[in-house]
Amino acid sequence: MIDREFFRQDAVKLAPSLVGKLLVRRFPDGSVKKLRITETEAYTGTDDTACHAHKGKTPRSEMLWHDGGTIYVYLCYGMHNLINIVSGAEDDPQAVLIRCCEGAEGPGRLTKALGIDRRYNGLDIMSCDDLWLEDDGAEVDIILDTRVGIAYAEEKDRNALLRYKMR
Asked: How much is the pTM?
């Protein structure tokens, strides 16, 4: 069941739990699109040099300090909106990047396919009217891998197996 406590898990537990769930978007015309999450990455807080929280609370990263279930959308490379779900308890800055969904390979393509932009930053995935998660009970096998696009991070964080991919 997807409830508030589900999102209050730490990122290492939440990230694989999101793989296989459905990311659902209701568009302004009333149509609904459901995409199965196939890949996530965990970002584990201030000690994780790949996590935006590592450099402290900034205007960009402030959402990471919110309660689990908060949507964190940021602009990457000045052109791609990326969606994360904050995990853990308030003031414990962790998040899970939703990297891929079926039919939308890559975090930038995913947000483009669903029309997700920074207007969603700070909204609650539990109460958002046009973006939410569903669990249809799908069982998935998960492969662990290293995270992508974090060359700036320390070696230990670049090599951490914190990427979860549906087999």
From this structure: 0.95
- Residue pair 99/121 in contact (Cβ under 8 Å)? The answer is no
Q: Which two tokens stand for residue 15?
A: 């990230």
Is the dihedral angle over the CA atoms 37, 40, 45, 49 positive or is it negative?
Answer: negative
Inter-residue contact 125 to 131 (CB < 8 Å): yes
Backbone phi, then psi, for 123, in 5-degree steps?
-75, 165
So what's the pLDDT on residue 102? 96
Lookup result for tokens 């609370």: 57
Confidence of residue 44 (pLDDT cuts 50, 70, 90): very high
Q: Write out the two tokens for 78.
A: 């000045």
3-state per-residue secondary structure call for the chain? CCCHHHHCCCHHHHHHHHCCCEEEEECCCCCEEEEEEEEEEEECCCCCCCCHHHHCCCCCCHHHHCCCCEEEEEEECCCEEEEEEEECCCCCCEEEEEEEECCECCHHHHHHHHCCCHHHCCCECCCCCCEEEECCCCCCCEEEECCCCCCCCCHHHHCCCCEEEEC
Cα separation, 131 vs 139, in Å, equals 22
